[in-house]
Amino acid sequence: MSEKNCKNCNKVFNVIPSRYERTEYCSKDCQLAFRRAPEVICLTCKNLFKNYRTDRTNAPKFCSITCLKASTPKDIIKTCPFCNATFSVVHWQAKRQNFCSKSCGINANSERITKQIQKTCLGCKGRFSPKGRTKKLQTSAKFCNLRCRAKYTEANFAKRFWSKVDKTGDCWLWLGQLNINGYGTICMPNHKNKMAHRIAYELNFAILDSTPSKLYVCHKCDNPKCVNPQHLFLGTHQNNMDDMKAKARTAHGEKCHNSKLTDEKVREARKLKKEGCSMVFLARKNNVSFQAMSAAILGRTWGHVKN
Predict the structure, then answer these.
(1) Which of 154, 238, 155, 224 has its CA nearest to residue 196?
(2) What does the pLDDT average to over 267-272?
(3) How far apart are CA 202 and CA 179, in angstroms?
(4) What is the DSSP pairing of strand 119-120 with strand 165-166?
(5) Which 3 state secondary structure label does DSSP give 95?
(6) pLDDT > 70: what percent of the chain?
(7) pTM recorded for the entire structure
(8) What is the pLDDT of residues 133-142, one digit of tens each?
(9) How far apart are CA 116 and CA 133, in angstroms?
(10) Distance (Å, whole) CA 281 – CA 287
(11) Where are the domains of the chain?
């Protein structure tokens, strides 16, 4: 036999070793007394009631459903701002519901719209009340609808375009947005971006949106920001490449980032070849391949270098 303390009365009693872990009470009366439900005070009616939950820490606060409903907040009474009638609202909808009915809300909204600011549309010259939740949106509105805005922007596109051009110098510089390559861009009335120098050429010769897409608008001055129509001409891709080559704007010779030879090395190699040096020796000396060295000496490449 082994001894153990009772969980209810804390008395010492003898227990068989095989039942030591399962036995917790000295008698059945102590077991019933411990398991008897404790009494809790109701928060509404202040009466005692028994807690039959096994979890003693999470005890109930109300003795019945009526006490629970009585403790919840009651409906809030409000006044309708349109018809001045009183109505009751559930407490969780008090902030959202301001009118007694849907019709009062619609009538109040229509009355608010009529009291809005009246403005003149720039497109059709008609009067309209701008829609907007704030006064800032209402005062900034200029058109009554999107169609009037589209017609106005299309009619005043040329004025908007030339307002972004600096005509002080020989080259008319574009003051608007630039792309990665430095060319000016502008948003068209159809919400598509186009090159500024192309639009300048089309506006000057009254052929807006009628220039063939295969033809390029090339620069005579080689200034990407320039939109002066006198500095522009139409041409194909081949004409543009020929013009770039004629102006020596192509990357050749020392301008190439991966070039190992220079103008002086090519002249020296050609001189040594005439003196009898082999092509292999010259290629190893300049740290290039045999084919690259022979092409430079024979003039197939580096043709711009004169002996």
Answers:
(1) 224
(2) 90
(3) 20
(4) unpaired
(5) coil
(6) 88
(7) 0.47
(8) 566 666 778 8
(9) 11
(10) 10
(11) 2-35, 39-71, 76-114, 119-155, 167-246, 257-298
